[in-house]
User: What shape does this take?
Amino acid sequence: MTQASRELLAEWRDAFDRSFGEPRRHADEEAVLDVLGIRIAGAPFALNLADLAGLTPAMPAAPYPAAAPGLLGLAGHQGQVLPLYDLQALIGRGHATDVRWWAIARAAPLALGFEGFDGQWRLAAGDRLQQNDAAGTGWAVRCGGALRPLIEFDGLIAAVSANASMEAAGRSPAPANTTTTGAGAAGR
Assistant: This one.
């Protein structure tokens, strides 16, 4: 890793950490949206920062004997053991070959692995666009020089929970193919 890469990574880490220390915004300030730019299968996507409890570089996952679609194993984060899922598989884009980052969900004990982290942006309301395409992505954001589909965590968590319930009941879980994005916290 070059010195420039280390400095850029440190800048991103500091901005990410500072965002958790800032007070929650009031209703009149909800037009601002904080997002993380990520890469899945080389394509740009975004995650709503409000959906995240953390972001960490990937480490080897502990194996777990389950047939859940997209389950990579178990991940440790701040003293918790979390199921680690392949975000690329959960949004129906095949399986990731190189998971380098984990996004820790705020609303459920869950970690999602993905290949690349491009940065963090604070966006005005005009940078969030409703989008209708064949994939049914719903919302996209304009940041980092790209139009990025905004991945909805609520739908992913619901799909993972439904599959876990089916597996616990002894039925085969549904294939991993949830909708890519939706309004999520950004549309509330």
About this structure: Confidence is low (pLDDT under 50) at residues 176-188. The chain has one domain: 3-21+31-187. The domain at 3-21+31-187 is CATH 2.40.50.180 (OB fold (Dihydrolipoamide Acetyltransferase, E2P)).
